[in-house]
Structures are given as structure tokens and as C-alpha cells.
Protein 1
Amino acid sequence: MKVLVAVKRVIDYNVKIRVKTDNTGVETANVKMSMNPFDEIAVEEAIRMKEKGLATEIIAFSAGPAQCQETIRTALAMGADRGVLVQTDAELQPLAVAKLMKAVVDKEQPGLVIVGKQAIDDDSNQTGQMLAALLGWSQGTFANKLNVADGSAEVKREVDGGLENIKIKLPAVITTDLRLNEPRYASLPNIMKAKKKPIEVLAPDALGVDIAPRLKVLKVEEPPKRKAGVKVKTVAELVDKLKNEAGVI
Amino acid sequence: MAVLVVAAHDGKTVRSNVANAVTAASQMGPEVHVLVAGSNAGEAAKSAAAIQGVAKVLGAEDAAYANWVAEDVAPLVVKLAPNYSHVVMAADSVGKNLAPRVAALLDVAQVSEAIKVEAPDTFVRPIYAGNAMATVQTADKIKIVTIRPTNFKAAATGGPAPIEQIGGTGAGGLASYVGAELSKSERPELTSAKIVVSGGRGLASGENFKMLEALADKLGAGLGASRAAVDAGYVPNDYQVGQTGKVVAPDLYIAIGISGAIQHLAGMKDSKTIVAINKDEEAPIFQVADYGIVGDLFQIVPELTAAVEKK
Ligand SMILES: Cc1cc2nc3c(=O)[nH]c(=O)nc-3n(C[C@H](O)[C@H](O)[C@H](O)COP(=O)(O)OP(=O)(O)OC[C@H]3O[C@@H](n4cnc5c(N)ncnc54)[C@H](O)[C@@H]3O)c2cc1C
Ligand SMILES: Cc1cc2nc3c(=O)[nH]c(=O)nc-3n(C[C@H](O)[C@H](O)[C@H](O)COP(=O)(O)OP(=O)(O)OC[C@H]3O[C@@H](n4cnc5c(N)ncnc54)[C@H](O)[C@@H]3O)c2cc1C
């Protein structure tokens, strides 16, 4: 079975982002970009499936500007076999990404798609569920553990009250949560090997997908800042402040 | 046109965040209806009918709805949606799972985790772990919105609103519920607790969390944790507060042995009062704390537990 994984290029999670002074978005020039951490988990899970003989080929998908090739290369260096980039400089929203992925799924016919539960830039937590809906497939979201067997998968999900187990029919879309696995680092020889692995570049038009944004971003602003308070020396002082100043205990 | 709130529930009562969703929904349209889909969920429907501002409750009974399998509940919501201007859900694990599936089936966008309703078509939502606030406008005819419960006041009790029974849509056979491993706790639920005591890697073991439990019990608080504490297996996953965990905004948040990474701050910086206990005076958590105390938590926490009065 082929496995398709999504890899999104996002501002690295360690970067302290800055809102643009004209309030149109956040500053992305000269900022370190990386693979969305949840997508590293997706790639790792696919590689483990291949190592167990459950997957035959891993295709890394990304949508966005030409630089997304670097993100795909990272996935290839980790162990994916080939890449598909839908290249566009236009703003992409989750529904558009899901439609692009659906077009690639229709072509490649994977038995499983693994995406991150959320991208740490836009924090939407939508794309996987939308893709499952468009395909008419089942969805195993916020996966903590994945067991793929003949024609179905058992998914342990991270939910509000703890963990939930579901059984879903394949093909399916899985979205990764933090505890699914610990992604590997690419070794130097594998980074070299990845340079030779193929990446197919497609245009949204060629896939017949309308990617026009549905949500208009009117403005992006800094959140209100919290002021640092005071340091207290003793527990007695803390309790006094909580009681008499803040009035919270 | 009316606004439809889709309620998560346990069969007996709707989740407390439904009252927050009703408040948000009432800012989007003139009339609010609540959908309670379930199996033997009559009591839950009654609890929804008792929320002030709810004009009507739709009760949909179907064995397929017993465990909130998104693949089975989505077709019902899709069927009802054309009668409404908006479909609103709380951004909890049920809403996050279901709402995007509904949106894609309707071919509309979704606004995730709105924290403010500027106008019926315009919402403010945090992006980049809350380090930027985006104001977004949607032109879609049916607007699918998940709301962050902590940013909307819970609607009071009122009613009762009439309950109308509607039919189910059956099981699609794509997915089935097997079971759950829920964390048992007598303590207040994390996202609605007035006080939250949270522990991080500084606790050094799951055993040491007992110390926080003692403090939490005395304060009548809920218990939370950083990702590092969850990853290390000190506490279950549902304790995680942050960008990719739960968002809390209690009156008092006590961060113990937590450094204050942006991903953690994203989940608690709207708390009214923040206390930080950390041995490193440079820890970023102190930049958002109203009251900080620098020192060894293993000494300070027992002292604090002894000093506060039992609630
Ligand atoms: C203020 C603002 C400014 C924006 N500016 C830009 C911009 O300049 N350029 C731009 O391209 N977009 C821009 N966007 C759009 C935003 O990045 C998209 O919403 C995004 O492409 C969709 O991802 P998400 O974070 O919403 O999805 P989520 O649903 O949170 O993502 C979940 C998973 O879906 C997969 N996925 C999502 N998107 C992709 C992708 N593109 N490629 C591969 N896998 C993916 C990943 O596996 C990811 O882990 C902007 C949005 C806002 C609000
Ligand atoms: C994709 C992604 C998503 C993430 N999502 C989240 C999220 O939702 N929530 C979250 O919390 N994190 C999240 N993180 C992780 C985050 O970046 C931090 O790694 C994490 O919050 C650190 O946890 P911590 O503060 O407990 O640990 P550390 O950063 O290790 O801090 C431990 C603190 O304890 C203090 N300490 C140690 N011993 C003592 C003692 N005896 N007395 C007093 N103080 C002591 C130390 O001084 C230190 O400040 C995410 C990261 C990524 C990449």
C-alpha cells in the first residue's frame, strides 16, 4: 500500500514571530522555516509502516512556494521515496489544500494519508478532516497510536477526557498528535541520497482545483501584552497577595 | 436566519462549553437552536433546553450517534445546515474533529477557534500560538465556526425551550467506536475550573505530582501540565495546556516547574492571575506572571499547601 504524507513549510517553532507593521500578516522574510512538527511525526509514522512491511512507497506532498521543495527534501532524507509539490505563491487555505491533496490522491491512489493535526502557523486543525470528507473516507484524528491491519486500522485518539479507541475502514486519513512517535533525524548519507529522489512539480490549474481563498484576512495584529508582575520572597507574602490584592483565593 | 449550535454531551448533560457557544452564537444571528444528537440523549437535550437564549432544541436520536463518530454525525449536520446562517461548535476535541468534515462536505471554509465576533461574517482568531490575532471575514453562505469557550461568557440558565425530535441519518459503516480510556478525576474539569494548578518537567516524576494534587484539592482546583510533563509520562495527555493542548483561562493559574515556552503560554496567558514557581529566575514564565516566587518547588509547594485554607 502506498502512503501519502503531507509536509507543510512553516516558520520554525523556536522563532519568535513578529507582526508586520502594516498589519497584513507576520514577517516571513529572513525567518527560519522548517517542516511543521506534526508533519515530522506523520513522515516518521509512514516510515515505520514501511519498515514493518505495511507500506510499499511513501509520497511526501506539499503545497506552496518553490521553497517547499526543501521541506519535501527533508521528508525524503528521513525516508520518504518521492515528492509531489503543488507549486503556487498564492495564499492557501485549508479547504484549498484539502482539494489539492484530493486531486493527488485520486491520481496516486494511496491506501492511507497521514497529515499533522494542526499546522503551528495558522493553527487551523482542519485539513485532514476536510480531505477525509472530500474523499468520503474515514478519519482517525489526533492519533496517539496507529495499528494498520487488513483493510482497517485501529486508532487511539487523544481526546478531551483522555484516550479513545476507534476502528476505521481503509482507505483513511490519519492526523497525528504529539505522542504518536518521536521522529528521527535524517543521517548525512540519507540527506545525500535524498538529493537524487524525484520531486514532481504540479500547478493547481493542472489539477483543476480552484484555490481562491474563502476567508479574507482583514488585518493581523499583536495580541494585548501581559505585564510582568512582581516577585515575592515568601509563601506567606504570596498567600497574602492572592487573598487581599488579587482576591482569587 | 437562526444559528445552529452543535452540542457535545455525555448523554445526560451537554458539556459546559455549550453555554459559551450559545453566547457566541447569539452574537451571530437573531435566534439560536441547539442540536443534541445521540442515543438515549433525552436528558442531554433537556439540559440544552435550559440554557438561556436557546429558542429551540433539536433532538436527533440514532444508535449511530452514541459515540460521536464524526463520519456518522456529519451527514446530519450537513442536512440541517442549509436552514441556518451559521453552524457553531466549541473548539474541543469533538468540535475540532467534526466541524471541518461538515465544512468540506458543504464546500465552505471554517473559521477555527474564534475568540471574538466582530460582525456576523467577521471573526478574530489567534494564529501562531496566539502571538498574532487575525481578523477574518467569510463570504460563504453557511458559516462554520468553532469558538474558544474561554473567550465567551457562559449563558445563564433559563428556558425551558421546546425540544423538537428529528430523525437520524444512520450509520455509514466507515468508522466505529471501540472504547475509551478516560482519566478519572474528582477534580474540576481543566477548561472550566476557577483555579488551575499546573506542573512541568521540574516535577521530575509522576509520583511528585501527588504534591500538586494535595495543593489542588485544598484549592478546589483543576490539574494541568506542560507538554514535557505529559511526554515524560508523569500525567495523562488530557492534562496538557497549550497551543496544541487545552486552552484555559481561570481566575488563578499556578505554574510550577514550568519554564514558559510560547507553546505553553498560548494555553494559559488569558488567565486572570498567574503565579509562577520556578528555581530559575530567568525563566520566561516570570514575564507573564503576576506573582513569581524563585526557589525550589519541592520546598515551596508543601509550604503553600499548608498556608492556604481549604475551600
Ligand atoms: C494572516 C494569514 C496570513 C497568511 N499568509 C499566507 C501566505 O503568505 N502564504 C500562504 O501560503 N498561506 C498563507 N496563509 C494561509 C495559511 O497558511 C493556510 O491556512 C495554510 O496553508 C493551511 O494550513 P493550516 O495551518 O490552516 O491547516 P491545518 O489544518 O492546521 O494543517 C493540518 C495539516 O495539513 C497539512 N497541510 C496544511 N497545509 C499544507 C500545505 N500547504 N502543504 C502540505 N501540507 C499541508 C499538514 O500536514 C498540516 O500539518 C495565511 C493565513 C493567515 C490567517
Ligand atoms: C509542535 C509543538 C507543540 C507544542 N505544544 C505544547 C503545548 O501545547 N503545551 C506545552 O506546554 N508545550 C508545548 N510544546 C513544548 C514546549 O515548546 C516546551 O518544550 C514545553 O512547554 C516545556 O515544558 P516545561 O516547561 O515543563 O519544561 P522545561 O522547559 O524543561 O522547564 C522546566 C522548568 O522547571 C524548572 N525547575 C526544575 N526543577 C525545579 C525545582 N526543583 N524547583 C523549581 N523549578 C524547577 C526549571 O527551571 C525550568 O524552568 C510544544 C512544542 C512543539 C514543537
Note: Chain A touches chain B through 79 residues (CB under 8 Å).
Protein 2
Amino acid sequence: MKKYSVFSLIRQGLRRDAEWPRAWRNPDPKKTYDVVLVGGGGHGLATAYYLAKEHGITNVAVLEKGWIGTGSVGRNTTIVRSNYLRDETGHLYEKSMQLWQNLSQELNYNLMYSKRGVVSLGHTLQEMRDIARRVNANRLNGIDAELLDTEQVKKLVPMLNASADSRYPVLGASYQRRGGTARHDAVAWGYARAADSLGVDIIQNCEVTGIRQNGRVVGVDTSRGAIDAGRVGVVVAGNSSVLAKMADLRLPIESHPLQALVSEPVKPVLDQVVMSNMVHMYVSQSQKGELVAGAGIDSYNGYGMRGSVSIIQGLMAATVELFPMFSRLRMMRAWAGIVDICPDASPIVGKMPVDGLYFNCGWGTGGFKATPGSGWVFAHTIANDRPHPLNEAFSLDRFTTGHLIDEHGAAAVAH
Amino acid sequence: MLLIQCPWCGPREESEYSYGGEAHILRPENPEAVSDEEWADYLFMRQNPSGRHQEQWSHSAGCRRWFNVERDTNTFKILSVYRPGDPPPEINDGPA
Ligand SMILES: Cc1cc2nc3c(=O)[nH]c(=O)nc-3n(C[C@H](O)[C@H](O)[C@H](O)COP(=O)(O)OP(=O)(O)OC[C@H]3O[C@@H](n4cnc5c(N)ncnc54)[C@H](O)[C@@H]3O)c2cc1C
Ligand SMILES: [Zn+2]
């Protein structure tokens, strides 16, 4: 891997950027791999990187049906935080939070992780009780969280309409200072480049069409031919049920469209990520100056990369109510990605009933922040054929045992 | 935005309705008698297909009645609408 640095930038600049090396190779698939990962999103690429780096398993392929980064990893609104309610989720997301801290340095790729703070507003007394409970739970788990009252919120976010006669009075908020945003495509590209340099084959335009079994998993069928594999890890987010069907499994997952939109770029007006579960909106300002906003999922199952305009209308109505000055902004683009929702709003990361088959899915509306930790525990699970203590509780059989991990409060509109 | 034909009220826009997920899931006759796996299957496991999906909708801001819709989850095209208890209509719309 050619190291990126200020010197390489100057050197290449003087040569009119003519000699930048490819960031990753473009190999043809081999006949056999020790591990095949299906899905070149953030989680699949991170898994490949940690398999190679932490476990020395480098005979690995990542098979991606399109181009890497074109799934939800390149469509999300880039919010990073770890203030989840339950112990299991708190520790899992916190693992990611810790990896984020110097991931740019580790991958030698600027992920633009910005600790701008995440403010989650409360508008009713019950919401404030839930927020206080979550803040306390976070602190007991060693995760930074603060409870703010109305005056503190006003001071922190002066553009917010928190006046007493506003339609959605702001009674307070939770605040996670280490939360913020990161550049989503850079996460995919940074992991891809680092994994590739450790020997992982990233194979694009290679759609997996079947999972081959012979008492256990022996490989996959793809649009570029059959590939043998000792182990197969499926990391396809919105398409998880489709892949599960190839192995005759059903998952407790529904795929839904999730929409977002951005405004024209303006000078800095909003320093934090601000979200409101109650009125279904969240907004932050990108480094380019655009306001990035989103809401909850479209209610119906869907694989088409678009949603209904009623969601956008509701989101915009709530946004201009909370930030009246934004009413003058023009919106530039809206889009959707497909998210895989579990009934308890927590992911499934672990072994499947078929030997040699592993799934990492169900991250729903909030998996971007989890990319590093998810890849890290999934690599451990595949390498050792058993979960890491951090993801043990996130097994498929929790839906049979009843040990659900309910995160609806921390993971519905909030991503 | 979907335009959905309520079997009783006619076409109305999606925001008058609420979604109820996969249709034709039957509650086990005798819940005490089924295994944990069967109960989990009933409660949580879903087909979630890419393609044709039979699903439940309620006209919650209208007549408040439930009914079934068959819809393509890729194109979002509504293929048929039918009342509870009725069999899904035959659809000749090419492969799902
Ligand atoms: C609008 C929107 C906003 C969001 N906002 C946030 C946020 O602010 N914070 C946050 O934490 N999370 C957010 N999320 C959720 C987050 O983006 C996802 O949970 C996460 O990206 C999913 O993991 P991934 O990156 O691996 O998925 P993806 O990038 O979707 O990767 C899956 C890949 O699998 C590939 N694939 C599918 N089928 C096959 C096949 N048969 N063969 C080969 N390859 C296949 C796909 O092409 C895709 O590239 C948001 C999502 C959306 C859509
Ligand atoms: Zn009606």
C-alpha cells in the first residue's frame, strides 16, 4: 500500500495527479477461498480487513454484486454514536466508537470522523424520563452521556426554536459529545484499500446467486461462476432475506426503504447532529455545508431504492418547525436505501444453523456507526467458528429463547 | 406515494392507511402445544421477498377495515387488492 501523506499529496500535485496508484486491485475470482464474504458494503469490507489483520486469514474474497460503496454504506446520513440503552448493545456500539477514534490513522485514509456531538431532543415528560434512563444506563456502562435542560440546549444549539410557545417545546435532550459524523464513502474505500493491501480479493460486479451446501457450506454460485469456500459470511444488509432463502432459511427481518435528503450548501449554521424521535427528524451539516436530513423508514416492505413523498413532507414540516431559518433553503437531492429491520431493532451477528455459514445483518437504520465494531466481531466469529463475547447475545436463536434486545427507543428515528 | 384501492371506499392515498406486514400468517390453533421454534417462526420469521408480496393494510384514517394487497416490492406496483377471507386473485403479470 502506498502511504498517503502530505508529501505524497504535494509530490502528486506537482505531477498533476497523473501517478496515483490504484487504491485496490481488480482481480478475477480464484477457484477457492478460505473465506468468502458476500456483500461489499462497509460491514463486509471491514470484516475482510479484520480477518486479515487480526486473524491472519488472507485468502479471502469480498463478492459485491455492483460497485463497492453503492449500498447503504454510501447512502446513509453518517451519524456515529454509541448511546444505546441495553448492556449488550451499549458494549457492541461502544466497541465501534473506540475503533473510530484513530481509524483514519490506522487505515491511512481520511474518514473525516468529526466529534461534533449528538443532541437527542425530548418534547414530552415521558420522553424526558426515557432520555434520563438512557443517559444513566450509558454512564453505568462507561459510555459518555449527558442530560441537558432546555436552557442548556438553547445555548448549545442557538438556531433551534426552543421557545416556550413553539409547536414542539424542547424540554431537554441527551448529549453524547464523542458522537458525530464520518465520511461514509471513505469508510468503504479506506477498508477496501487496507484489506486489499493485506491480500484480500475485492471482486466487483459479482452477484451471488446460490449458496452451495453438502452437509455444510462448500461455496457459492455467482454471476462469474462457482467459487469454493471453507466458510461463507453473508453481509448484504437490505438483501439479507434474499440470501437466507438461498440457504433455505427464514430470518426475522423485513426490508424497508429509508430516505434522506440534502439541501444546497450554506455557511456553517449547525455544529451538532440534532435529532428528535418524537417528530421524526434529524439533521446535521456536512463538511461541504449541505444540511443532511432524514426521518424514519417507509412503513411497507420494499427493495426499490425509493420511498413515498409523505415521509419527506413530514420530515420537512418538523424540520422547519424546529429550525425556522431552514425554511428558506432549497433541497437538492433525496434518495433511499434499503434497510434490514429486526423486530427488536438490534442486529443478528453470528452462526447460522448450517455449518460454515455466518450472517451479519439486521442493523436496520443504524449500522453505519457500527461498521468497525461489526466487522471486528464478525471476523472473530468466522475465524474462531464461535462468537466473541461482544456479539454472543446477538444470535439468531434469541428469537426462540425470547432474549430479545429491545432498542426501539434508541434506534427508531435516531440512526 | 402509493395509491391504494380500499375494497370498501375506493382509491385513497397511502397516508390514509397503515401497514400490517405479511399476510396469511396463521396463529397456531393451540399455542401451548407448539415448540419454541414453531412459536418463534409464527411470531418473527418472515418471507420478506424481493418481488411479489401479499401483505395487510388497514384503512385506519377511513373505514378502519383491514384487507390484503399483493404488491411487487421492487417496483411497488400494486397487483391486486382483496378482502380478508378471500383467496388472492390470479395475477398474469409475468414473472414476479
Ligand atoms: C438513508 C439512510 C440513512 C442512514 N443513516 C444512518 C446513520 O446516520 N447512522 C448509522 O449508523 N446508520 C445509518 N444508516 C444505516 C446504515 O447505512 C446501514 O445499516 C449499513 O450501511 C449497512 O451495512 P453495509 O454498509 O454493509 O450495507 P451495504 O452498503 O448496503 O452493503 C451490502 C452490499 O451487499 C451487496 N449485495 C446484495 N446482494 C448481493 C448478492 N446477491 N451478491 C453480492 N453482493 C450483494 C449490495 O450491493 C451492497 O453493496 C442509514 C441508512 C440509510 C439507507
Ligand atoms: Zn376504507
Note: The pocket of zinc ion (ligand 2) is lined by residues B 6, 8-9, 59, 62-63, 65 (CB under 6 Å).
